[in-house]
Amino acid sequence: MKNQLVSLTEHSTAKPSKNDRSLLGILVNKEIASFIRSWRFIVMALLIILTFMASMYVSMSNIKGLSVATNDPASNFIYLKLLTATDQSIPPFHVFLNFLAPLLGIGLGFDAINTEKNTGTLTRLLAQPIYRDNLLIGKFLAPLLLVGVFFAALTLLMIGAGIWLTGVAMEPQELFRLIGFIGISILYVGFWLSLSILLSVLFTQPSTAAITAFGIWLFFTIFFPILINLLVRSILPHPQSLSETQYIAYNELILSLHRISPGQLYSDATTTLLMPSVRSLGPISMEQTLGALPSNLRFSDSLMMVWPQITGLIAATALCFSLSYYLFMRKEIRS
Predict the structure, then answer these.
(1) What is the mean pLDDT of the chain?
(2) Residue 3 class from Cβ within 10 Å (0-12 exposed, 13-18 middle, 19+ buried)?
(3) Residue 148: is it exposed, middle or buried by C-beta count within 10 angstroms (0-12/13-18/19+)?
(4) Got the DSSP string for 176-190?
(5) Residues 213-223: pLDDT tens digits?
(6) What sign does the CA torsion over 197, 200, 203, 206 have?
(7) Using CA atoms, how far apart are residues 33 and 28, in angstroms rounded to an integer?
(8) What angle in degrees, to the nearest 10, is found between the helix axes of 172-202 and 132-166?
(9) Residue 317 contacts by C-beta under 8 Å, 6 or more apart in sequence?
(10) Do 196 and 109 form a contact (C-beta atoms < 8 A)?
(11) Angle at CA 181, nearest 5°, toward 299 and 170?
(12) φ, ψ dihedrals at 146, nearest 5°
C-alpha cells in the first residue's frame, strides 16, 4: 500500500510526458466524436448554415451592384462584401453570428463537468492515469477545434461560390481579413464556452448552468444597453444642451460602457476587419472629417485599431477558464 501511495504521489507531481500529451489527444478526439453525434450541435450547426445561406443568397443576388459601386472605396473587395452587404431584408452574416455564436458556445459547454459527475463517468475517468487539468483542457479544446473547422468550412464555401459566380481572384488583403474574422469568431465562441464550463463546475445540475448562462447572454444582449442608456441619461445632462466637444465625449462614454459587453467587442472587431473603409470606432468631429478622402485601411492598421477589443475577449476568456480550472482542481469528487 505504501508503494502504491508513493507511485501515485510521484505521478501527480511528475512533469507531463509524451504519453500525457497523447492522453490529452485521446480526450480531445473523444469529445469531438461525442459532439459530432450530439443533436444540440447538429441543430446549432444547421441554424448557422441556414442563416449563412440566407445571407449569401441576398449578397450574391446583388453582387453585380456591389462590384460596380463607385462611391464605396471597398467595392473591389467582393468577398468581404459577401459577408457584410445586405438589402435591408435580413442582417448580414456577421450580425447573425453575434447572436448565434454565444448560443453555440453555451450549448457545447454547459454540461461539460456536471453531467460527467452526475452519471458517474467522472470518477471512472479520473481513476485512469489522467490528470485533472488534461480533462478540463480537453473539454475546452475539443469544441473550439470543432467550431474552428466549421467556420473555416463555411468561409471556404463562400470563397468557392464567389469564384464560381464572378471569376474574380481574391486579394491578399481579403484573405487576411477573412482569417482574422474566423479567428475572432472562434475567440468569441471560446469566451462563452469558458463561461459555460465555469458554470458547469459551479452548479451540480446542467439545467441550472444552462439557465444561468442564457441569462447572462440575455442580460448583455438586451438589458445591458438599456441599463447603460438609462444610467447615462439620469446622470449627465440632455445631449441637446451640450456643445460639440461635450457631445463627442458623451458618446464616447456611452461607447466605452457598451464595450464592457463581449458582444460589443465582437461587433467592433468584425465590423472593422470586414469593412476596410471603417477608419474610426467612435464619434468624430466636423474638423476631423474635413479634407478626409475615402480610402481603405491596410489590414495591419485595422488590426491595430481593434487590438483592444481582441485583448479584451482574450482576457475575459482566460479569466473564466482560470476560475473554472482553479475550482475544478480543488473540487472534491467522490464515487
Answers:
(1) 81
(2) exposed
(3) middle
(4) HHHHHHHHHHHHHHH
(5) 999 999 999 99
(6) positive
(7) 9
(8) 150
(9) 187, 190, 191, 194
(10) yes
(11) 60
(12) -65, -45
> With 90 as the cut, is the pLDDT of residue 234 above it?
no
Question: Looking at the predicted structure, is the pLDDT value of residue 153 above 80?
Answer: yes
* Angstrom distance (rounded) from CA 156 to CA 322: 33
Q: What is the end-to-end Cα distance of the chain in Å, rounded?
A: 20
Q: Would you give the DSSP letter of residue 219?
A: I
Query: Rounded to whole angstroms, how far apart are CA atoms 31 and 28?
Result: 5
- For cell 479634407, name the residue: 291
Helices (H), the chain: 2-13, 18-36, 39-61, 63-67, 78-84, 93-109, 114-119, 121-127, 132-166, 172-202, 206-218, 224-235, 244-258, 262-274, 286-289, 299-305, 307-330
Residue 128 grid cell: 485512469
Of the pLDDT bands very low, low, confident and very high (cuts 50, 70, 90), residue 5 is very low
3-state helix, strand, coil in the chain (%, to 5): 75, 0, 25
What the block records as the C-alpha cell of 233 is 441619461
Question: What number of helices (H) and strands (E) belong to the chain?
Answer: 17, 0
Task: For 205-233, give one letter per residue: b (16+ CB within 10 A) or e.
Answer: ebeebbebbbebbeebeeebbeebeeeee
Closest residue by Cα to residue 287 from 244, 225, 236, 233: 244
